[in-house]
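Take a minute with the sequence and fold tokens given here and flag any structure token that looks odd. Thanks in advance.
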Amino acid sequence: MIMEYLDKWSYLAVFVLSVLPWVESAIVAFFAVMLGLNPVASGILAFLGNWLVVVLVVFLFDKLNVWRNRRKGAALNEEADSKKRKRAYHIFVKYGLPGLAIIGPLFIGTEIAAAFAMAFKAPRGAVMFWMTTALVFWTVVACVAAYFGIDAVGLIRGTV
């Protein structure tokens, strides 16, 4: 009876845990698979939980940037930008943003990486694309590693 109860609520716990800041979807998915939950369902729920927080962070930072630009006068800021600053910005968006998205979850967390990208005024669409790509990548890697790592010792299929 207790196991049936835990089975029903385990997937909800995967989702809720991945929504929490500083808890990455890859870590939640890894432990969920280790505990015997379905790797596909765990991965999808962990991804969705973390992704919703990233969407919220990007949306809020975008609204903050719009408000700040409206308040300061965006036209004055754009004219004051030098060629070097514009070039550095384009290099960041082209190369730094993908690196921040892929490596950020390992060191600072996905939410913080998204906040940094938006603080550096990267385009919202590019931030969402790269953060989503990184979340999918790390969640799939964690699920596959957990499934095949545990399956190699026969714990999932019960062949020990």
The radius of gyration is 20 Å.
